[in-house]
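Re: the request from the purification team.
They wanted to know what the chain is likely to look like in 3D before they choose a buffer screen. I agreed to run a prediction and write the result into the notebook, where they can find it.
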Amino acid sequence: MQPDVTKVGGISEERRIGWMAQENGVRFIPHGWNTAVGLAADLHLSSAFASTDLVAIDQAAYDLVTAAAGLPGSRGEGLGAGVDKFREITGIDGTVAMRYAEARALGTRSYELKTIE
């Protein structure tokens, strides 16, 4: 479950969502990368729940960006679906930090992505 503190009604509401996720065995991974304040709040909430795996959310985001075509007007414009945009744009292997974190038991790169319609 990836709630965004800026969209679910604030810190108290996201904390309540986190408790419900924890009680039902669902991983709680706050996702608020839209503003610095939202990101700070989500990171603080992440640290309060044992089920949070920030390595998994990084890997999922990386995989979703790679799977999608580059957006018009972005630095990824013209890069097709399946192209590692991070590597193409920066020349850097974006999985290095995730592999490092996983090797040190800070989380896992495996995840299950569920689509809600």
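For the purification team: The chain has a mean pLDDT of 83.
Please add any questions underneath this entry.
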